[in-house]
Write a structure and sequence with these properties.
By secondary structure, this protein is an all-alpha fold. Helices cover 82% and strands 0% of the residues. It has one domain (3-241). The chain is built from 10 helices and no strands. Helix 2 packs parallel to helix 10, helix 3 crosses helix 9 (189-213) and helix 5 runs parallel beside helix 7.
Length: 243
């Protein structure tokens, strides 16, 4: 990896971590398309998944008390079912198809939420189904957030519960994803070096994000989430077009 690529990777991780600390999600949505400009798209998936797992684990530990634990458990179970399928997709899909799939997936999710999706209560089948879809996306595109955010966002959860529940599911499903990547031989010397390089930026991003989110009113939280989705949809589309 060149020096310029390393700088891009570190800056992307810093910004993506701050975004996740504010909203509870968005690390991979923000990071993968931008990392793909600096490194191989498949390496970008592994890098984002691994670094994102560390960030989610730290957030889950500090915000555990606010988590909706039943919902998190069901979503994690679904993610465990879907993750091996996503690894197969990663192994057989072309770089271009992965970029296109990422752009389409984010765009569809954005349109659904803009049109308005309202769920009055939790549902075990729905949580498991969306968790499974999240697992597939986790190991194929490192973008496990959208299905989970779709459900939790539609339930109008309070921001602390929204963030904590996502962090717990991301941390749990990330453990499985890392194991599958290791079994598939995805951690070569370059990837491990890039991960180590990103850890200081990860910690700095968490500190920045926690400071910023304290300044965001609860009423503005959902608008911030939607703005983030719009931004990542544009970034994903650009990555696909310029591939």
């Amino acid at each position: 990896m060149t020096a310029s690529a390393a700088i891009v990777v570190v800056l992307v991780v810093l910004a993506a971590t701050a975004v996740q600390a504010v909203t509870g999600f968005g690390f991979a949505l923000f990071a993968v398309p931008l990392l793909s400009f600096a490194v191989d798209p498949k390496m970008a998936v592994v890098l984002a998944s691994t670094v994102g797992f560390v960030g989610s684990a730290l957030l889950a530990r500090t915000e555990w008390s606010a988590c909706d634990k039943q919902t998190a458990a069901r979503m994690t179970f679904g993610a465990a079912l879907g993750s091996p399928v996503g690894l197969v997709v990663l192994e057989i899909a072309s770089e271009e198809s992965l970029r296109i799939a990422l752009a389409v997936m984010i765009t569809v999710f954005l349109v659904v939420n803009v049109r308005g999706l309202h769920l009055q209560s939790s549902s075990a089948p729905l949580d498991i189904t969306f968790g499974a879809l999240s697992g597939v996306l986790s190991t194929s595109l490192s973008t496990n957030g959208p299905p989970l955010v779709a459900v939790l966002h539609a339930r109008h959860l309070e921001p602390p519960t929204f963030r904590a529940t996502l962090a717990v599911v991301f941390a749990a499903s990330g453990t499985l994803a890392i194991g599958l990547f290791a079994a598939a031989g995805r951690y070569d010397r370059t990837t491990v070096g890039a991960i180590a390089l990103c850890l200081p930026a990860l910690l700095a991003g968490l500190l920045i994000g926690r400071h910023v989110r304290g300044r965001i009113a609860v009423a503005s939280f959902r608008r911030v989430v939607m703005a983030l989705l719009a931004l990542t949809a544009v970034a994903s589309a650009l990555a696909a077009i310029l591939a």
